[in-house]
Design goal:
- The chain is an alpha/beta fold.
- The chain is built from 10 helices and 7 strands.
- It has one domain: 3-Layer(aba) Sandwich (Rossmann fold).
- Strand 1, helix 1 and strand 2 form a beta-alpha-beta unit.
- The N and C termini lie close together (6 Å).
């Protein structure tokens, strides 16, 4: 392998990169792998979860605030390069912001894939990581990020796609990434974790609320079924225990998004090492790379090429 090994993670908003892939970015960056993080938009339509920060002034400049949070978070994870797709936050599914023509949800797919193809051709990743087709949990920007990543993985190596990128000033050459992964949030000891959260007076995001109505129960069950159907098998577990301190420090930089009672913050690195010692993935596509499942390394097979 003459090229420096490169990992590219493709995300929706600032904070997603750390929640989903903070451990692997820290692990590989500190091992000398080049790591490139792509973020689709600045999350300007998101909520602010810390009451004292939830002001009209902060909402007006939330894109700027979250951009700064992202930069500080990545600094904890190592020498991470960053790229923007430069769309607008789409809000949650069904929100009016979905209809904004600037929103990622409204983006022309060929054009959006083309933006990421240029980045892929420029940065030449061997491995790409994003979400599944449900975006992990159904957020429109997560769904779009997953589909754009899948499209760019398929198209970046084909000179017939976006030939204008191959000519003139600032041109880039075709590049074919070798492996595409989808992140999987898999906690085998979920009941034990839920019990710990209850003891701490914290809510788990997958259990019903005490006052849940029948209609809310049906909606929750439908939603959970969609999540389960979209989630692929865990093919790859990457041990990140050594880097959970870095991940926790990075999460704490996303101040507007991480209230003190958020389980990601409220539980420390040692506790998360008990419940989620690895970041887990589904190997969705592999291009001319020998694979043997299960894996413990996103670059398994690539290193031998």
């Amino acid at each position: 392998m003459s090229e420096r090994l490169t990992l590219m993670t493709v995300h929706a908003h600032p904070d997603d990169e750390t929640i989903t892939t903070g451990g692997i970015m820290a692990r590989y960056a500190r091992a000398g792998v080049r790591v490139v993080c792509v973020t689709s938009n600045r999350g300007e339509n998101g909520k602010i979860f810390v009451p004292e920060l939830d002001t009209a002034e902060n909402h007006a400049r939330l894109a700027e605030i979250r951009e700064g949070e992202l930069a500080r978070a990545l600094a904890h994870l190592g020498p991470i390069e960053h790229r923007w797709l430069d769309y607008r936050d789409s809000g949650m599914m069904g929100d009016p912001e979905n209809d904004d023509p600037r929103a990622f949800w409204q983006a022309d797919m060929d054009e959006a894939i083309g933006r990421l193809v240029r980045i892929v051709r420029q940065d030449r990743p061997h491995v790409m990581v994003s979400y599944n087709d449900f975006g992990g949990y159904g957020h429109p920007d997560h769904i779009r990020a997953a589909l754009v990543a899948k499209g760019a993985f398929a198209r970046a190596g084909d000179p017939a796609w976006y030939p204008e990128q191959l000519e003139g000033r600032g041109s880039v050459g075709p590049w074919r990434p070798l492996k595409l992964y989808e992140s999987v949030f898999d906690i085998e000891r979920r009941d034990e974790l839920a019990q710990l959260l209850r003891e701490r007076g914290l809510e788990s995001w997958w259990e019903p609320q005490p006052d849940e109505t029948d209609e809310q129960r049906r909606e929750r069950e439908r939603y959970m079924q969609q999540m389960m159907e979209a989630t692929g098998p865990v093919t790859t577990r990457v041990d990140v225990r050594e880097y959970l301190g870095d991940k926790h420090a990075a999460l704490r930089e996303h101040v507007t998004q991480m209230a003190a009672d958020n389980p990601f913050i409220a539980l420390g690195p040692d506790e998360w090492a008990r419940f989620a010692p690895s970041e887990d993935f589904t190997l969705r596509e592999s291009w001319v790379v020998p694979t043997r499942i299960p894996e413990t390394d996103l670059f398994a097979g690539v290193r031998a090429e």
